[in-house]
Fold this sequence. Notes:
The chain has 174 residues and is of the alpha+beta class. The chain has helices at 17-24, 27-31, 44-52, 97-111, 127-135, 164-173, and strands at 2-3, 7-10, 56-61, 67-76, 81-88, 117-123, 139-150, 153-163.
Amino acid sequence: MITTERLVLRRPELRDASAIQTLAGAREVAFNTLTIPHPYPDGAAEVWIEKHRADAFAITLRETGEVVGMIGVHVNAEHQHGEVGYWIGVPYQGRGYASEAARAVIDYAFSELKLNKVFAEHFARNPASGRVMQKAGMTYEGTLRQHHRKWGEFVDAAMYSILRTEWKGLRTED
């Protein structure tokens, strides 16, 4: 469990399935993520939870425990790097929850998982996600043109990363 000023990041549980299906099932969320389907089928949240218990966190409000989104870090141990992915439900977007959660997961990735690099990507058509990555201390590395295909359309992927040495430098500035 990771606690921030406004959030608690905890491992997803089966009781979160309904909130996940409702929030991730919004077309706006699915449109800007690579693997979330739309419409979101019954039972898919439970399958996702079982598969991602070890590498994902439910983003919950500290005061109420309400699920507002998900974030995770997929680790490649051989290369000592991890890819961060996240989404926030539409009713909770624009409040800084994604940036707060991303900073916390990056801290976890370096301090607990001992990674050398954390990276993330977003569809170029979703610049708000790029701002989240920048606020989390990540550096823009470039754009992979027509890198993914979502709903029959090729989309560009903007890439960001932060290295352990950069993260350490950010911590000494606090």
